[in-house]
Structure formats: C-alpha cells, structure tokens
Write a structure and sequence with these properties.
Length: about 425
C-alpha cells in the first residue's frame, strides 16, 4: 500500500525539482532580455569613438537643415522688410486723375472729368489724409524751349528741353522730397502767378545751375523765370528730378493750363481704399464717375512674389544639400556594417536576433541625423540673425522651424539607415565569423 504513495511522493518530488530548476531559468531569461535602454546604449557607443568620421557624416545633414531653416528665415525677414518699404512708399499714396471716355465718331479718348483747382483743400478734410498736391503737365509748342541762357546759338547742336510741370505748393511734402538749396514756392507765388521756377537735381546739373545766391534764371519760351530752389529725393515722383516746375497759377496765366493732370494724396497706412472712395465724392460730388482714384492694395504683391522666389531658390539648394547629407549617412553606416561584421556575427551567436541587430544600426543613424539636424537648425537661425543685423533689418523666424529642422534631421537619418540596417540584420553568424 506504500508503493503507490511512494510513487506519488517521488512524482511530486520530481515535479518540485523541475519547477525549482525552471524558476531560475525563467528569471535568468528575464534578466538577459535586450531592453530599449540597452539598444540605445549599444547604438550610441560607437558614434563618438571616431570624431572625424562623425563630423564628415553629419556635415551634409547640417548643411541641408541649415539651408532649409535659413530659407524660411530669410524669406520671412525679406518679406517683412519689403512690406515695410512698400508701406512707406506706394502704400501711402492715392492718385486721382480724370477718367477717360470715347468722344465723337473717331472714338478719340478725352477726359471725362476735371480736377478742381482747390482739390488739395477739399481732400485735406478727409480722415487719413496727410497732405495733397496738384500736378499739371505743361505742353510747349514745338519751337519753344527751356534753356539757361537767353541767346539761342544756331550753330550749337540741338538739345532736348526738359519737361515742364506745374504744381501746387504742397508738392514737396506730398512727394516727400528734399531741398538741395533754396526753397519751394508758396501759396503767395501761386496766387500772384509769379515767374519763379524750381529745378530738379538732375536737370539743374545739366543746365550748370548749382546755387541760387547769384539769382540764376531759366528761359521758358523766351520768358525769364527766377530759380528759387533745387530739389532732390522725390520718392513718389522721381521724374520731377528731370523737370522744371513752376507754380500752378503761373502756368494758368502764362501757358493757359486748362486743368491739373493729377492729384497726389499722401495718406496713412491702411487708409487707401477709404480715401480713394471718398476723394472722388469730395472732388466731384455730382459726377464721381468722371474721376478715377488709384489706391494701393491691402497686401503687397511684390512682397509675396519675392518671398516665393527666395523660397524656391533656397529650397532647391537645401534639398540638394539634404540629399547629399542623407547619402553621406547611408554610406558611412554601410561602411560601419562592413567593418563590424565580426561583431555582428558574435552578437548573433550569443543570441541577438535580426531585429535587434537592425534596430541597433537604425537607432545609430537616427541619432546621427538628429545631431546634424540640431546643429543645422542652430546655424540656420544664426545665419538669419547675422545677415539681418548686418543689413539693419529686423530678423524674423518661427521657433517651430528650428524644432522641425531637428526632427527632419532624425527623419533623414532614419531613411538613410534603413538599407544598411537591413543588410546588417541579414548577416548570418557562421558567415560573419568565417569572414573575421
């Protein structure tokens, strides 16, 4: 009766011994498992062992990421600078002219309306208007000239006369011009139709007039006009630098000027559409359609065009450098696989799986790409700041671009290391150990 019990006891003892032996084995297997920390440690252990190779490996990625980050930074900075200049010039000007219409059976183009002589005073009451000035182009007869000397030498070579303009006294302020010497005529000259003239800087140089203390004169159609000033600048009406300008009242009295050609209005930034709509009503309340007002658009097409061009150029350069960096990472990683075949075979012989070997080289490539992305992003932002400071601009860049650059570097490393990692994972232990 004891035999079955003894057998049972012996069977239980055997089962207990088997469980006791299996328990340590299970613990050992759990302890030897290749964790993610082990993977990162193995993948990064060889990166810094050869600094020269590391520098050459990440150089392409650094250049590519730096080019991409600098591309966006330069585009944003240039767009802001162009927008600022556009706002300071064209965006603060409204030009009012007479609308054109077809007249008669010959379909000739004639002016449908006429600017009033007191137009600057009318629009000055509108909100957003800083100053306004009338400009009229004076037509001379074919035999009438503008010279600096009263005597016409028939033997001298003919010289083209400068253009003759008339304006109201507010032109210098409206066109943001400056004085080289002398002064601009005022409302008294205009109302009295005084025969005074102001020369543009370039036409004054051609006529040999550079000072007014000697009371120089120019002769317009044989009539002497005293030169009281020489102007320069004229950001909005640069053609006036090649012209002779007389008061509007003088042009009406001496040359029968019928109506002004245009009304230039200097406005505050953003008031263009409003001033353009209200100015024609203020000038011709009964027939606003006979006048045409040209106002700046709300956004700068020039700014957007330049930004697009800069983006395309730098983006192409950045992509090329980025591809070169990716190929560099792939080549160096593949070379590392060939040099470490013995190590790979030993790891496989000790129990490392193909997935672990491939993951090791993949993580190594990602880390190298991430380091290149960090350095490239920093260099790209630094380049934008340095160039902006040298040019006197305000640097504009998005902080998220720098973060995206580092992430993009890691993505490039991942894509570059895929094939070398796959090749390393396919190496068999026996073949690897034989090649050592």
């Amino acid at each position: 009766m004891r035999l079955p019990w003894r057998r049972k006891a012996r069977s239980s003892d055997a089962e207990t011994s088997a469980e006791a032996a299996a328990a340590p084995a299970a613990k050992v297997k759990h302890a030897d498992r290749f964790t993610f920390q082990d993977l990162v440690a193995e993948a990064t252990a060889d990166i810094g062992s050869r600094p020269a190779r590391l520098v050459m490996t990440i150089l392409g990625t650094v250049l590519g990421i730096a080019s991409l980050v600098a591309t966006i930074g330069f585009a944003q900075t240039a767009a802001a600078q162009i927008a600022r200049q556009f706002d300071g010039a064209a965006a603060t000007q409204v030009v009012v002219t007479a609308a054109e219409a077809q007249s008669g059976s010959q379909n000739k183009t004639v002016a449908a309306g006429r600017l009033p002589w007191d137009a600057p005073d009318r629009v000055a009451l509108l909100a957003g208007v800083r100053s306004a000035a009338l400009i009229g182009e004076v037509e001379l007869a074919d035999d009438e000239t503008i010279t600096a000397v009263p005597v016409n030498d028939p033997s001298a070579a003919p010289v083209a006369s400068p253009q003759l303009y008339s304006s109201s006294p507010e032109l210098l302020d409206t066109a943001q011009g400056g004085l080289v010497t002398g002064r601009y005529f005022d409302s008294g000259h205009d109302s009295r139709a005084d025969r005074v003239a102001v020369l543009g800087e370039r036409v004054a140089e051609k006529m040999g007039i550079n000072r007014i203390d000697s009371q120089p004169s120019v002769f317009i159609a044989g009539i002497a006009y005293s030169v009281i000033g020489i102007i320069d600048g004229m950001e909005r009406k640069s053609e006036l630098l090649d012209a002779v300008i007389i008061p509007m009242g003088t042009a009406r009295a001496d040359f029968g000027l019928a109506a002004p050609s245009e009304l230039d209005i200097r406005i505050v930034v953003g008031a263009g559409p409003q001033v353009a709509e209200q100015s024609v009503l203020a000038l011709q309340p009964d027939a606003p359609d006979t006048l045409k007002a040209q106002a700046p658009s709300g956004s700068s097409d020039l700014s957007q065009s330049v930004q697009a061009d800069v983006n395309v150029v730098f983006l192409i350069l950045g992509v090329i450098a980025l591809l070169a960096g990716g190929l560099g990472i792939a080549n160096v990683t593949l070379l590392g696989v060939m040099e470490r075949i013995g190590e790979i075979g030993l790891r496989r012989a000790l129990g490392a799986t193909r997935r672990q070997i491939g993951a090791q080289f993949m993580v190594e490539s990602i880390v190298i790409g991430f380091i290149g992305g960090l350095i490239g992003s920093a260099l790209g932002v630094l380049a934008v700041i340095v160039v902006a400071l040298v040019q006197g601009w305000t640097p504009v860049t998005d902080p998220l671009i720098a973060v995206a650059g580092a992430v993009l570097g890691a993505v490039v490393g991942w894509g570059s290391g895929w094939y070398p990692a796959r090749r390393a994972a396919r190496i068999e232990p026996v073949a690897a150990l034989r090649g050592v």
